[in-house]
Amino acid sequence: MATERTLSIIKPDATRRNLTGKINAKFEDAGLRIVAQKRIHLTKAQAGEFYKVHAARPFYDELTTFMASEPVVVQVLEGESAIQKNRDVMGATNPADAAPGTIRAEFAESVGENSVHGSDAPETAKEEISFFFSGLELVG
Ligand code: CMP
């Protein structure tokens, strides 16, 4: 399996509850390296652009309002099979379905306010990383 990079977002429900360090520990304990990271406050338009694939979904307005409500931490995680590994560490989208010990099982409040986002495939990882980070910010 190859070394990969994936885009992760620690969402407003988690930054509000001061959970950045606890969530980062979950990534590092799973063997993922945080090779880039910054705390930003998205506008609703920026959140809408990032999640445009969901534009037709009934929860799109709720999702983009939430993502712009408070700061987020955007980060690039690197490691062996990082995309799948991150998805395993996050747990299922709905915390009610998330396996014990996963980030969403431990911290998420609801399917909408589910503490973290992670890329779902190599192509989206590439697009999502370049949405937030320039090559100069990826120091490895
Ligand atoms: P995420 O991995 O960030 O990708 C899209 C997000 O949409 C997802 O996590 C959820 O937070 C959100 N989402 C999915 N389904 C629903 C829903 N039924 N209601 C509100 N938000 C949702």
UniProtKB/TrEMBL annotation:
Residues in Nucleoside diphosphate kinase-like domain copies: 3-140
E.C. designation(s): 2.7.4.6
Protein name per Swiss-Prot or TrEMBL: Nucleoside diphosphate kinase
HAMAP family in the record: NDP_kinase (MF_00451)
Keywords carried by this UniProt record: ATP-binding, Cytoplasm, Kinase, Magnesium, Metal-binding, Nucleotide metabolism, Nucleotide-binding, Phosphoprotein, Transferase
Family that this chain belongs to: Belongs to the NDK family.
Cofactors named for this entry: Mg(2+)
Binding of ATP, residues: K11, F59, R87, T93, R104, N114
